[in-house]
């Protein structure tokens, strides 16, 4: 009996210490992306041999965060298509990033915009964001599967509240009129997002 009691006390003590060490959550309010700690990668099947992967480096995300009722939060994202980075190995021969971002047969230099329309909480730290995605001047619905990684009232290095999310999703690019080289280049584009967010009035300068 003494052994069971000691074990139970140890578990309670561990829980108390864990709670004491855990940071206070970030408050609700307006947040924006922290570009130095975030990423937006996308990929598609290339000739059945690999999943070609690239990224965007200029992503502006805005979140009206409601921690007590996350489903009432709202999200908007704007991506500069000219910020695409493919790491093409011979830039002195071809400006491949400029072609992908700017040519009419690809992203056509038009902003990529996502606006949430509904958020569904599916678990303690998971949810689905339904919204409208616009690129190449066309708008269609799409969804994001989101993991809430956590938040803190004061980041130990930056000294401000921060919120962290991971998200994945996919689209059929042909639905937006981007049907170049299908099926040699896959129609389905998957994307992976890692985002840390700071208060909207925070200055990175």
Q: What features would you describe in this structure?
A:
The structure is a single chain. The chain has 205 residues and is mainly β. It has a single domain, classed as Lipocalin (Beta Barrel). The chain is built from 2 helices and 11 strands; from the N terminus they run H-E-E-E-E-E-E-H-E-E-E-E-E. The protein is globular and about 50 Å long. Residues 6-22 have low confidence and may be disordered.
Name the poorly predicted regions.
Answer: 6-22
Helix and strand content put the structural class at: mainly beta
- Categorize the overall geometry: globular
Known CATH architecture: Beta Barrel
Mean pLDDT: 91
The N- and C-terminal alpha carbons lie at a distance of: 61 Å
The top-level CATH class is: Mainly Beta
Order of helices and strands: HEEEEEEHEEEEE
Helix amount: 10-25%
The portion of residues forming beta strands comes to over 45%
- What would CATH call the homologous superfamily? Lipid/polyisoprenoid-binding, YceI-like
User: How many distinct domains?
Assistant: 1
Main beta sheet: 8 strands, antiparallel, barrel
Task: Give the neighbour order of strands across the main sheet.
Answer: 1-4-5-7-8-9-10-11
CATH topology: Lipocalin
Tell me how many strands there are. 11
Radius of gyration using CA atoms only: 21 Å
Domain Lipid/polyisoprenoid-binding YceI-like: 30-198
Organism: Ensifer oleiphilus
Keywords: Signal
InterPro entries: Lipid/polyisoprenoid-bd_YceI, TTHA0802/YceI-like_sf
């Amino acid at each position: 009996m003494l052994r069971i009691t000691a074990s139970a006390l140890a578990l309670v003590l561990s829980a108390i210490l864990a709670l004491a060490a855990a940071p206070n959550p970030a408050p609700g309010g307006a947040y924006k992306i922290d570009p130095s700690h975030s990423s937006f990668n996308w990929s598609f099947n290339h000739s059945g041999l690999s999943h070609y992967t690239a990224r965007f480096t200029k992503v502006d995300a805005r979140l009206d965060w409601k921690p007590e009722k996350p489903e009432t939060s709202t999200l908007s994202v704007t991506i500069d298509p000219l910020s695409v980075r493919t790491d093409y190995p011979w830039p002195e021969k071809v400006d491949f990033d400029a072609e992908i971002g700017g040519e009419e047969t690809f992203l056509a230099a038009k902003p990529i915009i996502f606006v949430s329309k509904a958020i569904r909480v599916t678990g303690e730290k998971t949810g689905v964001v339904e919204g409208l995605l616009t690129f190449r001047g066309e708008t269609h619905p799409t969804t994001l599967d989101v993991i809430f990684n956590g938040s803190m009232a004061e980041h130990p290095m930056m000294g401000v509240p921060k919120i962290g999310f991971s998200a994945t999703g996919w689209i059929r690019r042909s639905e937006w009129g981007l049907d170049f080289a299908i099926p040699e280049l896959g129609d389905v584009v998957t994307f992976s997002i890692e985002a840390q967010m700071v208060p909207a009035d925070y200055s990175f300068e």
